[in-house]
Amino acid sequence: MVLDMQNHSLVTYVRSHVRFGDIKSGQEIRSETLNRIEKTFLLLPDDALEAFLSGERNLTILIVPDLDIPYGMATTSTGPPAARKYTITAHAENLEWPEDLFIGALLRELAHVVARRPPENEWPQARGDRARYKERLEYVADAMVWRWGLRHYSIRHLTATYPEHWVERIIEEIEKVVLEDKERY
Q: Nearest CA to 13 among 24, 28, 44?
């Protein structure tokens, strides 16, 4: 009974937090996308899922038209820490990805929200520092997905997104973050 209530709450949550922009897709694509998003949320550990369902993390998922260049999903945040709002933006092309790739990408973005990714105006100002900071945020999000026991989705996303030699380096950096977290706790 509790699982049924949680599933109903999740369906309601997803339907009320996903917005489809002006994209050319039929009802079948929209329905499949909502199902994939629900499936991704169900993979989250209970505490992470509860952060969304309880409203502790204020999230909107926007599905928007494609850009002129291929572009993955991205998370932005606004507002002060106590009232932060998060937006995950996906593009129409992302809806055509194989399910495991879509889930891997969305898990990374959800991890950004769970980890409370700060707005860009709170990032370092110097260009090089900003780039390193952003890179570190990605490693932290990926490491969180790994700690959730969903490493295989993360690897699927990384191997589809980056050249092989980059993937090897990224994995090394994620492993460092995981080790740092183990040493910290």
A: 44
